[in-house]
Amino acid sequence: MEGPYVIRRGDGNWIPMGDGVRLSYLRRYGEEYSILLEMDAGGRFPVHEHVGWEEIFVLEGSVRLGPQELRQGDYYYSPPGVSPAVETEEGCSLLITSARGQEANQRQASLKTS
Fold it and tell me: Is residue 108 part of a domain?
């Protein structure tokens, strides 16, 4: 993705990430990315490892990240390392930005499928 561009509401390329969880890339540049993550009510994303930092902004709904309960408008920052399980009772939409992504998570997924 180079140069200016617009992604209109509803134009996302949604990738399923498990039961009731999907993501759409907004920006990818080198090892950096910004995504929208949508979770249906009862959705859960397991504990995972991030090689770089991660920022999360709650656009809609509420979400629990480990012991932290976040609601619409809340911001969460995590340094590199292990991120807690992400779960929601009511559903949510999150804007997530990371410097180096989930390379370790991808390695774990490949180990599970081999």
Answer: no
CB 41 within 8 A of CB 88: yes
The CATH number of residue 40's host domain is 2.60.120.10
Residue 25 lies in a domain: yes
Decide if 20 contacts 41 (C-beta within 8 A). Answer: yes
User: Which pTM does this prediction carry?
Assistant: 0.80
In a domain, 71, yes or no: yes
Instruction: Return the structure tokens found at 69.
Output: 């309960």
Confirm if 54 and 66 have CB atoms less than 8 A apart: no
Cβ neighbourhood burial of 112 (10 Å; 0-12, 13-18, 19+): exposed
Residue-wise pLDDT tens digits, 43-102: 998 877 777 889 999 999 999 998 999 999 999 998 888 778 889 999 999 999 988 655
